[in-house]
Amino acid sequence: METRLKEALWEGEEVRWSGRPKPFELMEQSFKSSILLTWAVSACVLAAVLYLLVTSLASGTRTIGDAFILAIITLFLPAILSARPIMDKKCLEEKTIYAITNFRIIAIVKDEVMYLPIGKGMKVAVEQQADGCGNLRFGELVGKPSKKSRAHAVLGLRSSDESRDVQGLLFYHVDQPDQLMRYLA
What we know:
- The protein is of the alpha+beta class.
- It has 2 domains: 3-20 and 98-184, no CATH class; 29-90.
- It has 4 helices and 8 strands; from the N terminus they run H-E-H-H-E-E-E-E-E-H-E-E.
- It has helices at 3-8, 29-59, 64-95, 149-155, and strands at residues 15-19, 96-101, 104-109, 112-117, 124-128, 133-139, 157-158, 166-175.
- The longest helix has 32 residues, at 64-95.
């Protein structure tokens, strides 16, 4: 058992199952259009900013220093948005551990432990994929759109951005997610 998971367990808690997301394609069909759209919009913003900076430099209304600072500030958001899918993929494949215990559903992403208590009436749903892998949704993430599933797998679903309370978890691209249901009984 991995050290991060061992440290997250409560006294008397037993691991029924643990695993990680299986490697997946960055451009899976359900994400391809949104990733390409983000990259296209970012490229348009980059082109527009470069055009405006070149014309303002040519006309003498801005100094090179001003233009450089403006370019960095303006291009920061598109750059981050464009890199996010790549960072999420790396985070999920390399820094994520999932577990089902006798008390909780646990997702450890980087060094953050997120969990939901197992109880009667807990909502659970399986999203099967063609390769035998799929997503397992818990709590309030059941019924949410799939297009945000990578973000939900990394961040969980919280009541607010600053809240530590997790209302939903998603095990992303795990092998045979329907088989994991037996560990919830």
